[in-house]
Design a protein that fits this description.
heterodimer; A: 115 residues; mainly beta; 7-stranded mixed beta sheet; 4-stranded antiparallel beta sheet; 13 strands; 0% helix; 59% strand; globular; B: 110 residues; 6-stranded mixed beta sheet; 12 strands
Chain lengths: 115, 110
């Protein structure tokens, strides 16, 4: 059971394409996150949004562009990606209060393949 | 800096064997501790959590105890099943920063 949904579940795109990943959380949380999970590598935090404001950007290339229109929705816009960007992209949410975050809940992920 | 160190895998066990996956952490402040499980092709699912020293988190036969004196949060299960085959992640949050271990792959064979 998950209160965080992600679409699409699988995406294949060429290096010149533009696509978007969508995440929606139904948990009433105020913080949302994008992670990248590559084979044989630790989980990489990409972006953090709190109350719709971006609070962290971990030196992610500009070909990844996040958007958070409200506290329930998070997008990751993709353009001119490279084959090494192929990975599982995970969205998560949590409740943050006065600088302290509670449990993160994850979506099922989008498996991205860049040809 | 803050970090999580967990047992490297892969781990292969026979069905009904006892499981331990070690996890230690280095954290400033007073972290909350978590174990997540990831099944093939899925995201991370919360397995259990503990928020203060000596708390025991438990779920689906898995247990872990928050040991502040040894900064550890080892995952245990008395009798594993084939359906427990997955990757297990130890994690903690301090303030609003989350830290994850690198994951331990478990395969249970019939």
């Amino acid at each position: 059971e998950t209160g965080v949904t992600q679409t699409p579940r699988h995406l294949v795109m060429g290096m010149t394409n533009k696509k978007s990943l969508k995440c929606e959380q139904h948990l009433g949380h105020n913080a949302m996150y994008w992670y990248k999970q590559s084979a044989k590598k630790p989980l990489e935090l990409m972006f953090v949004y709190n109350f719709k404001e971006q609070t962290e950007n971990n030196s992610v290339p500009s070909r990844f562009s996040p958007e958070c229109p409200n506290s329930s929705h998070l997008f990751l816009h993709l353009h001119t990606l490279q084959p090494e960007d192929s990975a599982l992209y995970l969205c998560a949410s949590s409740q943050e209060d006065r600088g302290r975050a509670d449990t993160q809940y994850f979506g099922p992920g989008t498996r991205l393949t860049v040809l | 800096g803050d970090s999580v160190t967990q047992m490297e895998g892969p781990v292969t066990l026979s069905e009904e064997a006892f499981l331990t996956i070690n996890c230690t952490y280095t954290a400033t402040g007073y972290p909350s501790l978590f174990w997540y499980v990831q099944y093939p092709g899925e995201g991370l699912q919360l397995l259990l959590k503990a928020t203060k020293a000596d708390d025991k988190g438990s779920n689906k036969g898995f247990e872990a105890t928050y040991r502040k004196e040894t900064t550890s949060f080892h995952l245990e299960k008395g009798s594993v099943q084939v359906s427990d085959s997955a990757v297990y992640f130890c994690a903690f949050v301090t303030g609003n920063q989350f830290y994850f271990g690198t994951g331990t792959s478990l395969t249970v064979i019939p």
